[in-house]
Amino acid sequence: MDGHERPDVVEYCDKIFLPAMENYEWCMAQYNGENLDQKEPNLQPGEKRIIAQFHDESCFHANEFKKSAWLETGATVLQNKSRGWLIHVSDFINEEDGQLIHQNIQGDIIIIIYPGAAGDPWWDTKQLLGQI
User: Which PANTHER family does the UniProt record give (predicted)?
Assistant: First the structure.
């Protein structure tokens, strides 16, 4: 369990976060139908459109892979004995542009670190703020 399923987190999402997001939907583009056709919000003069940015993090090990593979008859997958380096990925996305980009940096702002005893420091708020 990574914490997203904890009762206090679920309660916060259901009672605070999702109702707050619903209050902003009127000023966000909507994407409808099979082709996800974009419908712009009906804004009054002085009102601004909102593009929600969402943050996601994921951790996995370098040697994680599926248990099945296409191989010649009698061949086996050469497996490493360890799970390998821990890889931590942090990124921002939105439904309009995909990954968040920075106007002064070519490409997206995804951050990949390799935390652990002999690697990078563990992900923290300081690194998150540096990313944005």
Answer: CXC1-LIKE CYSTEINE CLUSTER ASSOCIATED WITH KDZ TRANSPOSASES DOMAIN-CONTAINING PROTEIN (PTHR35871:SF1), EXPRESSED PROTEIN (PTHR35871)
